[in-house]
Amino acid sequence: MRWLTTRSVEEFLAEAGEFLRAEPARNTVVLTVTEDLRVKAQAGMAQARTGATWSGHDEPLFGWWQQETGQAPVRGAFLHTPNFPVFLTLMSSEAASALAPQLAATGRRVSGVNAEAETGAAFAAAWQHRTGDAAKVHLRSRLFRLGELVRPDPGPEGAPRLAAEPDRDLLIKWTDAFVREVGDPVRQDHAAAVDNRLSYGGFIVWEAGGAPVSLAGLSRAAGAMVRVGPVYTPPELRGRGYAGAATAAASQAARDAGVTEVVLYTDLANPTSNALYQRLGYRPVEDRVTLSFQPGT
After folding, report:
1. Are residues 124 and 199 in the same domain?
2. Which ranges of 43-116 would DSSP assign to H, the alpha helix?
3. Residue range 226-245: average pLDDT?
4. Are the C-beta atoms of 107 and 114 separated by less than 8 Å?
5. Do residue 79 and residue 116 come from a single domain?
6. Which of 36, 74, 87, 107 is the most exposed place for a label (fewest CB within 10 A)?
C-alpha cells in the first residue's frame, strides 16, 4: 500500500470520490471542503481563498491510500488545508503511520491532526518520531446524523429567515466570535468565508423582536449531504432556546432542499449542546479527536 497525493481537487475526487461518497456522513468535511474548492475553480478562481494567500507547500493537499499496483480500492484519504490540522478519514493505523513522515518530508507546516482516536494517535506518534513535535488533545468531538427532526416545543419567540447581504457585517462578527470561543485556528478576516456562504444561502438567522439573535450555518451540499454549523448565539442571549430553534430551522431547510444526509459536530466537553442536538433528532455516528502539535525540546 502507498499514499498518492495531489493538489488537484479534480484528480483527488476522480481517484477517491467513490470511497468518500460511500459514507458521506463520516466524510462530510472532506466532501464539503472539496465541493467548495471545485465550485470556486469552476467560477474561474485559480485558488479557493479564505483570507490568506496560498503558495508552494501551503496549498491544499489531498491524498489517498491504495495498493501499489492494479485497480485496488482506496482504503483511506486525507485533506490538509493551511492553518488547519490534517483531516484523516477512517483508515488503518498503518496508513496513518505511513502518512506522517511523508508529509513531514515535504516541509508542510502541520499544526495537528483530526482523526478517529486510534488513527490519530498513530499519526501523532509517527509525526513525533520524525519531527520531535509532541501532541496534546485540543478537542474531542462527536459526529451526529439527523434522523427524524423534532422541533423545539414550545419554541422561543421569533422566526427563522435566510441571511442576506445586509447581515454580512454581523455574520463576520459572529463567525469570528464562534471561532475564538471554540478555539479553532483564528484567521484575521472571515469575510471571504461569510461571502462564500451567502453566495449559496448558507446561513439561517433566528430573529426575535426585530433583531437577529442566533445563527446556524449550512455547508454547501455535497451530493445529498449537508453539514450544519457553525451554530452561534451571543452569550447575553443564551438560555432562551434560540440556538435549538435556529439549528432546527437550518436542518429543515436542508431537508426541504432534498438533502437526505444532514450532519453536525459537537464538542464532547459541552453537555448542553450534545443533549440539545439529540433532542432535535440527531443520533451519534462516530467520535473524533483533534491533536495539536507543539515543538519538542
Report:
1. no
2. 93-106
3. 97
4. no
5. yes
6. 107
User: What is the residue-averaged pLDDT of the chain?
Assistant: 92
pLDDT of residue 44 exceeding 80, the answer is no
The C-alpha cell that represents 73 in the structure block: 480500492
DSSP per-residue codes, 110-151: --EEEE-HHHHHHHHHHHHHHH--EEEEEEEEEEEEE-S---
Q: Which 3 state secondary structure label does DSSP give 258? A: coil
Range of weakest confidence among 58-72, 109-123, 215-229:
58-72
The grid coordinates listed for 40 are 470556486
* Domain range for 172: 148-280
Is 8 in the same domain as 115?
A: yes
Query: How does 269-287 read in b/e, with b if 16+ C-beta sit within 10 Å?
Result: eeeebbebbeebbbeebee
User: Does the CA dihedral 13-19-20-21 come out positive or negative?
Assistant: positive
The count of residues in the chain is 297
Closest Cα to residue 283, out of 148, 130, 153?
148
- What is the share, in percent, of the chain residues with pLDDT greater than 70? 93
What is the reported pLDDT for 243? 97
For residue 79, the model assigns a pLDDT of 97
